[in-house]
Specification:
Layout (H helix, E strand, L loop, with lengths): L2 E11 L3 E4 L7 E4 L4 E3 L1 E5 L2 E2 L17 E5 H11 L15 E3 L12 E4 L2 E8 L5 H6 L4 H8 L4 E7 L1 E4 L3 E6 L7 H9 L5 H9 L5 H13 L7 H4 L1
Parallel strand pairs: 7-8
Antiparallel strand pairs: 1-4, 1-8, 1-13, 2-3, 5-6, 5-12, 7-11, 9-10, 9-13, 10-11
Helix pairs in contact: 5-6
């Protein structure tokens, strides 16, 4: 019997828009991050119908078809950053779905869940880039998300189908019980916290390729690794 672990509070999709930037080394932001709430959407192998991404090198595709966030994560960001981001309007972090009752500590890569008519499998944490700071008008937001691990997570789609607001997310199977989103976010900051787990993550067939490559480089170079500097500023 499937166990319900969360409920879909909000579904969000969006088109690519251009935002003029002030007090930034970039003049504008071309992005699909500003997603709007809808009551129902059809999830395909590459994401919700009608949902677009500008940077297809780092966003979208089958292994990043669905970006999931939680109410708890929003609340924790507001608490730690002394902000008042609301979850029921335009997306502040580019989220496709906001879920109740769970957090990065409850989700592991390889996990399989059903949501509405669809079935998904968790692939990796979201990797923070400069657009989080630009979209929230908080210069330190990207750095904060990276260091705090309040990232949300991506999933690929095993079965396409419609998802509606208030649908239940039900647990089906766990593949990597040691590799939660929370743990992976700690390891990407400092793999030395647990060398064995870092190595296990790098070797896991369930971890998304972009995160696996970043973690592998971090694991190899340690404090000499500068890969995130360009994405965080």
């Amino acid at each position: 019997m499937k166990t319900t672990i969360a409920k879909v509070l909000f579904i969000k999709i969006g088109k690519v828009t251009t935002t003029k930037l002030e007090n930034s080394k970039r003049k504008e932001m071309l992005s699909g991050i500003k997603k709007q709430p809808v009551s129902k959407a059809f999830l395909t192998k590459v994401g919700f119908l009608g949902d677009k991404q500008a940077d297809l090198l780092h966003h979208g595709g089958e292994n990043k078809a669905l970006f999931m966030f939680s109410q708890q994560t929003y609340e924790e960001i507001n608490k730690q950053c002394k902000t008042s981001f609301e979850i029921d309007g335009v997306a502040h972090f580019g989220e496709n779905i906001i879920l109740s009752n769970i957090s990065e500590n409850d989700i592991c890569i390889g996990d399989i869940y059903s949501i509405g008519e669809s079935k998904i499998q968790i692939t990796q944490p979201r990797q923070a880039c400069w657009k989080l700071s630009a979209n929230t008008n908080k210069n330190e937001m990207t750095k904060f998300i990276f260091e705090s691990g309040l990232t949300g997570w991506y999933a690929k789609v095993l079965k396409e189908g419609s998802i509606s607001k208030n649908d239940e997310m039900k647990f089906i199977k766990r593949e990597e019980s040691d590799l939660s989103i929370k743990i992976l976010n700690k390891l990407i900051v400092n793999p030395s916290l647990n060398i064995n787990l870092a190595k296990k993550a790098i070797e896991s067939e369930f971890l998304g390729k972009p995160f696996k490559e970043s973690l592998g480089k971090r694991y190899k170079l340690k404090e000499k690794d500068k890969q995130f500097e360009i994405y965080h500023t």
